[in-house]
Amino acid sequence: MGNVIIVGAQWGDEGKGKIVDLFSERFDIVARYQGGHNAGHTVKVGGQKFILQLIPSGILRPGKIAVIGNGVVIDPAALLKERERLEAAGIEVAGRLVISHRAHVIFPFHCMMEKASEAKPGRISIGTTSRGIGPTYEDKIARRGIRVSDLLDAETFCAQFDQLAAEKEIIARALEIDEPLDFTEIRARYLGYAEKLRPLVADAAAFVNRAMNEGRSVLFEGAQGTMLDIDHGTYPFVTSSNATAGGACTGLGISPTRIDAVIGVSKGYITRVGGGPFPTESRGEAGQTLRERGNEFGAVTGRPRRCGWFDVPLLRYSTMLNHFTSVVITKLDVLDHRREIPVCTGYRHRGDILTEMPALARVLEQVEPVYEMVPGWSCSTEGLREYKQLPEPAKAYLQYLEDHIGVEVGSISTGPERDQMILKPGSKLEKLLG
Ligand code: GDP
Ligand code: IMO
Ligand code: MG
Q1: Most exposed: 106, 116, 302, 347, by fewest CB within 10 Å?
Q2: Among all residues, which ones are annotated catalytic?
Q3: Which ligand is in closest contact with the Cα of 16?
């Protein structure tokens, strides 16, 4: 088994958690490379539901090692709570979780600043998850951030923290934040977290590279999705990290030459949470039905997800950026009720069909999707496990998607449970997973 990256091909929530959980059986290590506890990856196993935010989904598989890379931003309170939740559910975490000493740390003032700036009149509201993700990456890029290694060295930490606190105090006043910020309390609390984190902290890049040298395989778990990537997504309506495949290399300290395959995960339709352009959004009853059937509510914030139709130009763009080896189509069962399924095959803008993804959110807001209607199957595919059991129109729909995006559909998910899954016979993905 080689080293494989799993990437969300849309705006997040494609079902990456389920796919990572399923595939992780065949890998030794599962590693997260970006984002933070803005992610919510749902895994259902035998009726038990887990929502993983920071800890890679591979932790649910006994014996696997979970790694949190340098590209991730960590809220220690959230991480420790997540570990407690897993342990309470009988999942052993001790000795199986490695945290990069180079990952940056989220502080309460990051969340506070984010909420204040999101609410500021006249500012474009992104509709973030309010977890302090953006402000923490801001500090990282501005070279004033505090890393896990800094936190573990009390002297370094206190000096850095006091300097950062002084700056944040000025900003808090400028933003008219009236929530009290007790920096002394925060500093003491974080020194406490440091001791709890210490046994988990290591040089994650060295750990993963050594494991690879010894022939062990790594599954990279992407968070968010390609269209939320800070560079390639629908800026400014994006997250603050590189969710695309390249992020796995920088976010863990891995050379691109060590990556054997990139798997894209996409729903058979599409959703988005928060603000920003969404050409195929269905605001009417059809979108509402997708939301209800797909239970499309944010795993982290509970917000209703905006729902719409499969967007070929978006998937082609995502495929170009990530060069997918194979695509997994999830939530096929959610479309079981449709007699016809609209699929967007192009964007029209001022009379022309666009050949590239516009960089301006304003242009993407204005595009008019060109739809083709593909026959539905009007029967249940829920829980099917073999490709041959799929109704012919469902196979034709998947073939249609494959032909239009230009990459094989190697696997199809037919329900939230771990085993509600089809691996397409003869696909590259089947060969890859052995
Ligand atoms: P992630 O962030 O990409 O891991 O995705 P989320 O966990 O946020 O959202 C995916 C949701 O769809 C979760 O509630 C999953 O349990 C659910 N899910 C995943 N695959 C399927 C599927 O094939 N069918 C159905 N009905 N639900 C699915
Ligand atoms: P997973 O890993 C869907 C969205 C937020 C907001 C934007 C920026 O579960 O797919 P942030 O808090 O990151 O600064 O918010 O990105 N967003 C997600 N949407 N799935 C996610 O993660 C997301 N993480 C962030 O809703 O629009
Ligand atoms: Mg999610």
Answers
A1: 302
A2: 13, 41
A3: 1
